Amino acid sequence: xxxxxxxxxxxxxxxxxxxxxxxxxxxxxxxxxxxxxxxxxxxxxxxxxxxxxxxxxxxxxxxxxxxxxxxxxxxxxxxxxxxxxxxxxxxxxxxxxxxxxxxxxxxxxxxxxxxxxxxxxxxxxxxxxxxxxxxxxxxxxxxxxxxxxxxxxxxxxxxxxxxxxxxxxxxxxxxxxxxxxxxxxxxxxxxxxxxxxxxxxxxxxxxxxxxxxxxxxxxxxxxxxxxxxxxxxxxxxxxxxxxxxxxxxxxxxxxxxxxxxxxxxxxxxxxxxxxxxxxxxxxxxxxxxxxxxxx
Length: 295
Description:
Layout: E1 12-14, E2 17-21, H1 24-27, E3 36-41, H2 58-75, E4 76-86, H3 100-112, E5 115-123, H4 132-137, E6 146-153, H5 171-179, E7 184-185, E8 191-192, E9 208-210, H6 219-226, H7 238-248, E10 254-257, H8 264-271, E11 275-280, H9 283-289
Helix pairs in contact: 2-3, 7-8
């Protein structure tokens, strides 16, 4: 990382990166233009009731977020990507959904100038059945287990390589590769050629990411408990950050998380030999995040 790239004093550092305590909208102004390869973040969601980690209401969320987006676009490289993980919200007092994620997406593209490279859906099968009023009491809605994830880019051609995130082949595909397959036209009209038998060392993943958020006895949580520090209440799983860091960056690239929370992004970037910068406004969360790097 270029030491001239950011000037404030870091709260702590690792050999590949640093985390800074403060308002990310101010801190990011110290980053030079066109220097960040990936912005990967899960900001406080727009929820119908306030949470301890500082969420905005759905009505105010977009206006709150757009100034950050202008800075994100400025600091991204031309082939860089911006991954935005957003949870949904019900409107107050009613079993109907806010559409703030979609309104935000439209404005990010039309006003800020981002391109939508692809939409993803983060499915957490372990999520609790909420909101209780509609799901477990009145039983008129089903469990909400999916976040939308917008993959945005500064230009139409961001750097990406799905060969870095291949999934293991299914048993049926392994059997097909072993026994061979006769090329033919399927009833649907698709022409399955003999190239279908090529072993590509794995299957191309879908844009539905099934990653359970079941962390319960990690080093981070154990050390926070030992130090009597309250852990961040809304951590995203390491597998989520790992997917996009591997997919969209190379070793040595710079990853930024402007709403770092417990600094999952920084830890995963460190693990995969990327440089990283993290911002977080809550000192207790920053203090606790150090324990991700502790044995």
